[in-house]
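The instructor's notes for this session suggest beginning with a concrete chain rather than abstract definitions. Hand out the sequence below and ask the class to guess, before any prediction is shown, which regions might be ordered.
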Amino acid sequence: MEMHKFKVLAETGIMSRPATRLVMAAQEFKSDIKLTYNDHTVNLKSIMGVMSLGVPQDSYVEISASGEDEREAMVGIDTYLEKEGIVEQVQESADA
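After discussion, reveal the predicted structure:
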């Protein structure tokens, strides 16, 4: 399983247009992709699930991928999110 932590930069958070485009990006992969915010996890391929989280700006989320193309899925989603300015990846400390 691949997992990355992000800080949400988008002024609207992960709602509306950013949520829709993120779901579309996730649907390109076969892996099971999840979005976690405040201990709630949803399928990243479900717009209703993503919107139900109500992720605001300056919050932290985790995205995980599990499956045959999990690495490619994470690279693709990371690239999309950072290119669009929706999030920045949070580097985990060596002590964590």
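Then share the key points. The CA atoms of residues 25 and 37 lie 19 Å apart. The chain has one domain: 2-90.
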